[in-house]
Specification:
- This protein has 229 residues and is α/β, with parallel strands linked by helices.
- It has two domains: 3-128, HUPs (Rossmann fold, 3-Layer(aba) Sandwich), CATH 3.40.50.620; 136-223, no CATH class.
- Helix content is 30%, strand content 28%.
- The protein has six helices and ten strands.
- Strands 1, 2, 3, 4, 5 and 6 form a six-stranded mixed β-sheet that branches. The protein has a four-stranded antiparallel β-sheet with strand order 8-7-10-9, covered by helices on one side.
- A hairpin with a 2-residue loop joins strand 9 and strand 10.
């Protein structure tokens, strides 16, 4: 199948490991042609919603992945109605570019999948879930062994030790996760920022910044490192 025959898709981009792997699988697919990244940014913070990643790093990811970035800026707080309206506007733009499907990195939460499928159906698009049903322990190892590099930017301190905030997502971290915590954080235990992996033209250079607690979650800032002159 030629590229012209493939379905044009956007990838729902959280800046984390699962969306990177979903993009990787979509790019490896015979049927899909990823042509853009779709991200929600909390306007008052200028950061990726929930993951807390700075827009500068989001832009750096898109540049390294050689894909255009499409931002949906949401207010704080953001009602379900407001979120839905803003998303429909973004997907209308996608449709004008020939996009017929959106790729998501969800793995096992059936209620989240049903919600996404319903929203896509409203705009005559299809939701695609390339990670769906994967064993998360095996998936986590596969991503790491394939060269995916990420750091934890947000965690739920009720489930994950606070000192894991900012840590590298690697085999050592997986071994240290408490019992009952999903290795991919599928239940919201933690979120990540990917700075290298399949599809990156080059790794991003970053450093760990300050850690704060806000609204019951622990966030660690990841900062871009300017190249030396």
């Amino acid at each position: 199948m030629t590229r012209a025959e493939k379905a044009r898709v956007w990838v729902a981009w959280s800046s984390g490991k699962d969306s990177l792997w979903a993009l990787h699988l979509a790019r490896s697919s015979r049927d899909l042609d990823p042509i853009g990244l779709l991200t929600t940014v909390t306007e008052s913070y200028g950061r990726v919603s929930m993951h807390g990643v700075r827009e500068a790093l989001l832009e750096a990811q898109a540049e390294a992945l050689e894909l255009p970035l499409h931002r949906v800026r949401i207010p704080t707080p953001c009602t379900v109605e407001c979120y839905g309206a803003l998303m429909r506007q973004a997907l209308a733009q996608a449709a004008e570019l020939g996009v017929t499907k959106v790729v998501f990195g969800d793995i096992s939460l059936t209620d989240i999948r049903a919600y996404r499928e319903a929203r896509m159906a409203e705009v005559d698009m299809e939701a695609v879930f390339p990670l769906w049903g994967a064993d998360t322990a095996s998936l986590a190892r596969e991503m790491i062994e394939a060269g995916m590099r990420a750091r934890i930017t947000c965690l739920d301190p009720r489930l994950v030790p606070r000192d894991m905030a900012g840590c590298s997502y690697d085999a050592g971290l997986l071994a240290g996760l408490p019992d009952g915590v999903d290795p991919c954080g599928e239940n919201g235990e933690f979120h990540t920022f990917a700075w290298d992996g399949p599809g990156f033209a080059h790794p991003l250079t970053v450093r760990v910044g300050r850690t704060v607690e806000r609204e019951g979650f622990v966030f660690t800032d990841v900062l871009p490192v300017a190249p030396r002159r």
